Amino acid sequence: MSNIYKKKKTSIFMRLISQSKTIIFLLLAFLISSSAFSQNKTFFLYDGVPRGSEGWTQQEREMIYPGTQIMLVQNVVRPSIRVFLPAKEKANGTAIVLEPGGGWETIVEGLEGNPVADSLTAHGITVFMLRYRLLKTIDNFLYTTDKKSGLDPATRFQDYTSKLKQLDLDDIKATMKYVRSHAAEYGIQSNKVGIMGFSAGAFNVTVLATEYDAETRPDFVAPIYGAVENFSVPKDAPPVFLAHASDDKLVPVARSIHFYEEWTKAGRHAEMHIFEKGGHGFGVTRKGLPVDNWIGMFFQWLKSEELL
Fold first, then answer.
1. For residue 174, is it within any domain?
2. In the beta sheet, which residues pair with residue 245?
3. Is residue 79 in some structural domain?
4. Which of 15, 25, 90, 185 is spaced 20 to 30 A from 296 at the CA atom?
């Protein structure tokens, strides 16, 4: 065998080894990135169209709030869950079912959903953000503070209470059951599963806080600028954390105060923070005001209740 042939054979062999290493490296990189991507997964809450939504023809869609970069969702027919997992070294076993607001005609995920979930996971909390069912909105929908798809606020609330309240309660109950039944899979403690909601979402979570059963009782509740008005406090009512701004022009702070007072009258744990300024829909947006600190106060409260 000539030296030239040996050199060619060696060169081909070395190239094959080099290419194999490259392929292995790329495969590992793909697997690692796929694993990281799969941490924040999204899936439908029910198999098929859930009870109560039969015959609904509206199409779910995402849009940008006019004049902003805030993403919101319309026309949810099939509720879905997006899971946000904390870094493994930070995970502490606490979980929160999160309901952003939006007046029951939208879900403002870009303000009260994703940014809030990121703040919670940064503190080791696993988040299950729920896209709950909504009232139908028209195709050329324009989101404003006082008029939505031709319905005034009073009519919209009537539509919610007559058509949607039970469906949204069904959705959050089904989510609580899912979270608890998959606690081991997500590395969470089944006795540290709470709910947090904003505005219309706060109304929804306070409905659950007063109408749960043994399977769906939340371990803590955090309604932010919103609460149900007519309710009875359960004997084993969970601890509650409320935050609201006095200058909220959309949802009066009196609703949160009433909820707090009824909870404490019943001898149940409750903490409330009322801020002079903040308006409605402050979420976790930094405003350079004391209201910016509400979520830090929430984390401190969780620790005081031995829930974090």
1. yes
2. 275
3. yes
4. 185
Q: Rounded distance, CA 291 to CA 230, Å? A: 27
For the beta sheet containing 106-107, the strands, ordered from the edge strand earlier in sequence to the opposite edge, are 61-64, 71-74, 106-107
207-208-209-210 Cα dihedral, nearest 10 degrees? 60
In a domain, 188, yes or no: yes
On whether the pTM is more than 0.85, the answer is no
User: Domain of 81?
Assistant: 39-304
What is the number of domains present in the chain? 1
For residues 199 and 244, what is the distance between their CA atoms, to the nearest angstrom?
10
For residue range 229-262, what is the model confidence (pLDDT) as tens digits? 999 999 999 999 999 999 999 999 999 999 999 9
* 58 occurs within a structural domain: yes
CATH number of the domain bearing residue 254: 3.40.50.1820
pLDDT digits (tens, 9 = 90+) for 188-238: 999 999 999 999 999 999 999 999 999 999 999 999 999 999 999 999 999
DSSP H or E stretch at residue 95: strand 95-99
The answer to whether 210 touches 204, Cβ cutoff 8 Å, is: no
Between the alpha carbon of residue 12 and those of residues 5, 48, 49, 149, the distances in Å are 11, 55, 58, 69
CA neighbours within 13 Å on the CB side: how many for 157? 10
Question: What is the rounded radius of gyration, in angstroms, for the C-alpha atoms of the chain?
Answer: 24
**5 is written with which tokens?**
């042939």
